[in-house]
């Protein structure tokens, strides 16, 4: 899980009280079966050779599709209720694929009485077999409108291609209850850490006529936001809202490869106006990765020209580095 997501989860947990374990056979120490863990579209066996906690983990193999994986049915209305928040964690280890990254995700799934399904994402991340065991975290709040409309609920882990086997261990699902004292404790920390005494010395014979107003103009905390370059240039309301509330920025719609290079050998620098506006206000800018190994974030033409000559992808990657690093380095 990305550090920002983990940090948000930890901040959330500081204001919450964790309840008892909801999963049955959470550590896979007892025999697997429909009363606890089943393997949807796969073969699930206890494994005593490779584990993180206790004596056993669960080996998931013979998967029929990327959705195949371990799941546990939960009791709606008792174990899981609408309007409640839940924290989930599990250790995962991929056994196939070497250094190739694969998506791993966990969802709380709900079958509604009208036949539809709802999938609440607990976490979704990429990992490789070389990563070994990784501990995954996530949390969700079940909408308080579900009530009597849910007929079945279950937790599910899957995501990697069907041929990829994996292990899971140390699962946990717990309800989060808001601590009644968290607001008072937070206010006390604000008074101690975030505030400072200020002494004003005023030389006047009529101090009762003086008004003092304090306005914060900058924050030492790195509050930031993704910025739409077009809106920043064209909308005064958008511009004012951003500069009045945030200290950092990342251009959301102008620095990815398919955005700067919509055609071969044509570099579009249209985000530069927005970048200059941010720089003029002293706003640090976070860049994007130069290459993003996802088909939807690579220029479509790169696949078209690949057949023209050997090495064209390498050549265009080098050109991409020259274009963006040469233009934006040290900015």
From TrEMBL:
Q: Which domain of life is it from?
A: Eukaryota
Give UniProt keywords alphabetically: Carbohydrate metabolism, Hydrolase, Polysaccharide degradation, Repeat, Signal
Domain GH10 intervals: 206-331
Is Signal included in the keywords of this UniProt record? yes
Q: Which residues form the signal peptide?
A: 1-20
Q: Which Pfam families match?
A: CBM_4_9, Glyco_hydro_10
Write down the InterPro entries for this protein, in alphabetical order.
CenC_carb-bd, Galactose-bd-like_sf, GH, GH10, GH10_dom
UniProt record, GO biological process: xylan catabolic process
- Hey, which family's this protein in? Belongs to the glycosyl hydrolase 10 (cellulase F) family.
Name of protein:
Endo-1,4-beta-xylanase 1-like
Q: Tell me the organism.
A: Branchiostoma floridae (Florida lancelet)
What lineage is this protein's organism placed in?
A: Eukaryota, Metazoa, Chordata, Cephalochordata, Leptocardii
Q: Which gene encodes it?
A: LOC118409119
């Amino acid at each position: 899980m990305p550090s920002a997501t983990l940090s948000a989860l930890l901040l959330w947990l500081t204001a919450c009280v964790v309840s008892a374990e909801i999963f049955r056979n959470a550590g896979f120490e007892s025999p697997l079966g429909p009363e606890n863990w089943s393997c949807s579209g796969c073969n699930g066996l206890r494994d005593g050779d490779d584990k993180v906690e206790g004596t056993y983990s669960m080996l998931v193999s013979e998967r029929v599709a990327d959705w195949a994986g371990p799941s546990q049915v939960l009791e709606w209305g008792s174990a899981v209720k609408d309007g409640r928040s839940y924290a989930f964690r599990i250790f995962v280890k991929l056994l196939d694929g070497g250094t190739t990254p694969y998506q791993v995700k966990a969802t709380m799934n709900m079958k509604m009485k009208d036949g539809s399904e709802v999938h609440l994402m607990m976490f979704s991340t990429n990992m490789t077999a070389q990563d070994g065991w990784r501990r995954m975290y996530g949390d969700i709040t079940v909408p308080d409108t579900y009530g009597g409309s849910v007929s079945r609920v279950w937790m599910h882990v899957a995501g990697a291609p069907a041929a990829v086997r994996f292990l899971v261990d140390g699962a946990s699902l717990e309800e989060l209850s808001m601590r009644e004292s968290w607001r008072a404790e937070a206010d006390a920390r604000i008074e101690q850490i975030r505030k400072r005494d200020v002494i004003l010395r005023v030389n006047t014979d009529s101090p009762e006529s003086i008004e003092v107003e304090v306005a914060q103009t900058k924050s030492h905390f790195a509050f930031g936001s993704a910025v739409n370059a077009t809106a920043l240039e064209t909308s005064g309301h958008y511009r004012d809202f951003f500069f009045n509330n945030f200290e950092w920025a990342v251009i959301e719609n102008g620095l990815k490869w398919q955005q700067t290079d919509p055609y071969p050998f044509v570099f579009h620098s249209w985000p530069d106006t927005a970048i200059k506006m941010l720089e003029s206000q002293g706003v640090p800018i976070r860049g994007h990765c130069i290459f993003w190994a996802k088909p939807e974030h690579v220029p479509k033409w790169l696949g078209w020209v690949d057949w023209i000559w050997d090495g064209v992808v390498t050549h265009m990657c080098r050109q991409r580095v020259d274009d963006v690093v040469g233009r934006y380095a040290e900015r």
